[in-house]
Amino acid sequence: MRPVSFRNCYIRIDLPSTSLVVVSFMKDASEKRRSVTLADVARQANVSKATAARVLGGYGVVSESAHEDVMKAAQALDYRPNELARSMTTGRSGLIGVVVGDIENPFFSFAVRGISDAARAAGFNVILANSGEEIEAEKAAVRVLIGKRVDGLIVTSADCRDISHLRDVHLSGRPLALLDRALPDLDVDAVTVDDRDAAMRATRLLVDAGHRRIAYVTAAEDAEIRGADGLPVISTSTVRDRIEGFLAACREADIAQPERSVLFGAKKTATRAIVAGALAASDRPTAILASDSIIALETFKAIREARLRIPDDISLITFHDADWTSVTSPPITAVDQPVYSLGKSVADLLIRRLKGDMAAVERIVIAASLIERGSVGPPPH
Amino acid sequence: MRPVSFRNCYIRIDLPSTSLVVVSFMKDASEKRRSVTLADVARQANVSKATAARVLGGYGVVSESAHEDVMKAAQALDYRPNELARSMTTGRSGLIGVVVGDIENPFFSFAVRGISDAARAAGFNVILANSGEEIEAEKAAVRVLIGKRVDGLIVTSADCRDISHLRDVHLSGRPLALLDRALPDLDVDAVTVDDRDAAMRATRLLVDAGHRRIAYVTAAEDAEIRGADGLPVISTSTVRDRIEGFLAACREADIAQPERSVLFGAKKTATRAIVAGALAASDRPTAILASDSIIALETFKAIREARLRIPDDISLITFHDADWTSVTSPPITAVDQPVYSLGKSVADLLIRRLKGDMAAVERIVIAASLIERGSVGPPPH
DNA sequence: GTGAAAGCGCTAACAG
DNA sequence: CTGTTAGCGCTTTCAC
Question: Under an 8 A CB cutoff, do A104 and B104 touch?
Answer without folding.
Answer: no
